[in-house]
Amino acid sequence: MKPFLFLAGVLCLPGGLIHAAGEPAAPSTPEVSPAPGATDAATPTPDESRSSQEADALVAVRASALEVAGAFSNDGFKTRDGHWIGPIRAKKPKVIQVNLYAGNQYWFTAAASEGAKKLAVSIHDEKGAPVQFQPYRDQARASAGFSPDISGPYYIRIEEEEGDPAVFCLIYSYK
Amino acid sequence: MYLRTCAAALLIFGGGIALRGETPAPSAMPSATAVEPVPATAPLTKEELESATRIDSLTIPSPGELMAALSKEAKPNWQGQYRQPIPTTFASRAQIAMNIGGLIADGYIALEAADSQQVKNIGKDVITLAKSLAVSENVIARGNSIFEFAENNEWSALKEELEATQNEVKLALEEQRDGDLVWLVTLGGWVRGTEAVSSWIAANYTPQSAKLLRQPAVVELIRSRILRLPERMRNDELLEEVLEKLDEIERLVSFPEGTTPTQEQVRELRDLTGKLVARISQK
Fold first, then answer.
1. In a domain, A55, yes or no
2. Which pLDDT tens digit goes with each residue over A53-72?
3. Interface touch A130/B41, C-beta < 8 Å
4. Is A15 part of a structural domain of the chain?
5. Do residue A23 and residue B56 have CB atoms under 8 angstroms apart?
6. What average pLDDT does the structure give for chain A?
7. Interchain CB distance below 8 Å, A153 and B10
């Protein structure tokens, strides 16, 4: 089984991992992390190998999002250190609340793991209405650029429009 | 833990995996005056709004974001927002956590002032406080980077390093099963950042800059998370005071869309956040 699909399956299970930097995981939530000693020269056990694949998949999906955000950094955008990683399935969008300041410019970037074919990111105001944003799409990666006129809460919606269950990572940049 | 794994792997692999497709050209940057038509997007459903994820690391803006927004409206004298050095010994872990957050916000202020010595002083205090939480190992490494970037006036890198340092503290707290303290770090940073910005706006009032202070969901989220803290921690006298003041602060940053706080209201916010910051750093 492909590691991405395996990981998506694990994450979609009840009690599966939805983890974000700075948010304490619930005690019952299994954290995907490299198995102790997985980097040793000794042959890893099956469990160690699986754990390593999971960690690799998380690294890859975040790296993929950071890669897109890197283009924005060249234009003076700062990428926040935090991110949101979780499972995603076609037509089952994920929504996160953010708080934005008028006058700043933002790019919200999502990337999904292998299996996802087409990803979309949209921005909504505090009542849920879509706002005008600048879209960027590249198969399993998508961004939305936005410069709010009003400070306050907004919602970012990430939707897998086509593909198999996958893992996504959302990050954002501002200037 | 996995975040560190991610970071390590990114370093090892020189920053990433193979490219798929093209990355956006700089010309694709957003701007208030040149935005493409909205793609067909449906409004969020009531269920989506109610079940939206709210997490510390993305839902709460960094102090740097608020300062960046204000710097677009005006040229604030950020050095005027410095405060006296705070004590670096506290008996309560909750109080230490809040003060680490406050110091990180101080770091952003010094950074906006392009004051490398002040950044280094603050970095030193962050490490001292982190040691008293026994989470200093990785924070020290970050602190060293802060010194280095400040020494070389690498302000852009410093901005990201400050947030990374704060997240390093939070991760270490989680690993120590002290995750309850994470939101207190966030609280300390948000209050100190809001104090500095509201203080400047109060003294240099314009309606446009006052509108920046609208942050209803931020306070509501922080307050709700503090209310989830274990009772033994919530019954702490300091935290009781914090919750009481957050109620008042929430009222002042929750003005409706389209309205503008008066200068008097901004002064009130400055005074309230100032008192809270002072109380948090009081031994």
1. no
2. 778 888 999 999 999 999 99
3. yes
4. no
5. yes
6. 79
7. no
Residue with tokens 């995981």: A25
Of A61, A158, A60, A75, nearest to B24 (Cα)? A75
Residues 155-174 in A contacting B (C-alpha not used; CB under 8 Å): 155, 157, 170, 172, 174
Q: Quick check: A135 contacting B, CB < 8 Å? A: yes
Q: What is the CATH number of the domain that holds A139?
A: 2.60.120.380
pTM for the full predicted model: 0.82
Number of domains present in the structure of chain A: 1
Chain B residue numbers with beta carbons less than 8 Å from the beta carbon of A86 are 53
B11-25, B56-70, B73-87: the lowest-pLDDT one: B11-25
Judge: B30–A19 Cβ closer than 8 Å, yes or no.
no
What is the pLDDT averaged over residues B173-182? 88
Q: How confident is the model at residue B38 (pLDDT cuts 50, 70, 90)?
A: low
CA-based radius of gyration for chain B? 20
- Does residue A66 form part of some domain? yes
Token digits of residue A97: 């609340």
Residue with structure tokens 């102790």? A36
Which contiguous run of DSSP H or E holds residue A11?
A: helix A3-12
Cβ of residue A4 closer than 8 Å to a chain B Cβ: no
Domain membership flag for residue A98: yes
Predicted confidence (pLDDT) at residue A73 exceeds the cutoff of 60 = yes
Helix, strand, coil shares, percent, chain B, to 5: 70, 0, 30
- Per residue in A39-52, pLDDT (tens digit) is 333 445 556 566 77
Domain that holds residue A66: 60-174
